[in-house]
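Q: I'm building a small set of examples for a reading group on sequence design. Run inverse folding on the following structure and report the sequence directly after it, with nothing in between.
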């Protein structure tokens, strides 16, 4: 059995779609109510048995490290005010036995380059990659599914879902082969953001991956692709054409928090599921909808 214990989080992106909010604050720290997007991804990784978190950061991303580092001054203030529960919450953002490593991506040369920057920290070990923009919710989360599938069949694995025709051009789309008895889908190729007419399927790869260290050798020799960047999709396509890639269906509900409407949808759904104020929030939404309908009817 091959166990994956390392996770890579590429968090060097500039987050231009959320300016001006992300002018000084990393997009990964944008909150879903009271928890940053990236913390959801970290909790998903830890739940899957990951014990080493590798963050690939860039310029102006020090705040990401600060969030996962200890803050003794804040903890002392909370203790002095008798807020022990809050102190424990802050202290346990990274659970005991889980370590954090921060690696710098010196230039914004693409997702493939960001993953390659993690190579010294990953070494000759298998690893998962989580893109924090993709918020996953549900009882079964994709990183756990990837880790379990990798233990059965160590190879590059993608978490995938079928998308609507109008969304095909937004994602890496799989050229699929047969599906095995264990549910693994063979991947014969990966086309990055194709036009609908050129798409080999409607099965899209999202921000959860499992890799063997073989991916690093390909990324080192890969020529720049779309946008003049080193594209992770191109490296996956290379492996797929050698018959070394499979996919599994994403078991969770996915929110694209790199998109403003997807981010807003995530906030609403997470708030509605909150056991403390979910019912109150639902009542608020109903009141606002009624007011909106009344105002429209009066026009």
């Amino acid at each position: 059995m091959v166990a994956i214990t390392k996770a890579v989080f590429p968090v060097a992106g500039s987050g231009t779609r959320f300016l001006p909010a992300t002018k000084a604050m990393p997009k990964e720290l944008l909150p879903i109510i009271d928890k940053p997007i990236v913390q959801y991804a970290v909790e998903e990784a830890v739940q899957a048995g990951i014990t080493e978190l590798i963050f690939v950061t860039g310029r102006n991303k020090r705040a990401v490290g600060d969030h996962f580092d200890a803050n003794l001054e804040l903890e002392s203030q909370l203790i002095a005010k008798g807020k022990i529960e809050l102190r424990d919450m802050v202290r346990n953002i990274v659970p005991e036995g889980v370590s954090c490593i921060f690696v710098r991506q010196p230039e914004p040369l693409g997702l493939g380059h960001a993953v390659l920057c993690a190579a010294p920290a990953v070494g000759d070990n298998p690893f998962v990659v989580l893109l924090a923009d993709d918020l996953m919710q549900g009882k079964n989360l994709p990183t756990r599914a990837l880790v379990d599938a990798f233990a059965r069949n160590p190879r590059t694995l993608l978490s995938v879902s079928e998308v609507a025709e109008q969304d095909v051009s937004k994602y890496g789309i799989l050229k699929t082969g047969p599906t095995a008895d264990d549910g693994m889908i063979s991947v014969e190729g990966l086309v990055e953001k194709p036009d609908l007419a050129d798409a080999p399927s409607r099965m899209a790869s999202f921000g959860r991956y499992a890799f063997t260290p073989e991916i690093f050798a390909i990324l080192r020799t890969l020529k720049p692709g779309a946008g003049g960047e080193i594209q992770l999709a191109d490296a996956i396509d290379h492996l797929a054409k050698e018959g070394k890639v499979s996919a599994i269906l994403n078991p969770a509900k996915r929110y694209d928090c790199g998109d403003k409407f997807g981010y807003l949808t995530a906030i609403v759904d997470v708030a509605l599921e909150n056991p403390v104020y979910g019912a109150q929030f639902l009542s608020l939404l109903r009141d606002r909808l009624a007011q909106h309908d009344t105002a429209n009817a009066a026009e």
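The longest strand covers residues 203-211.
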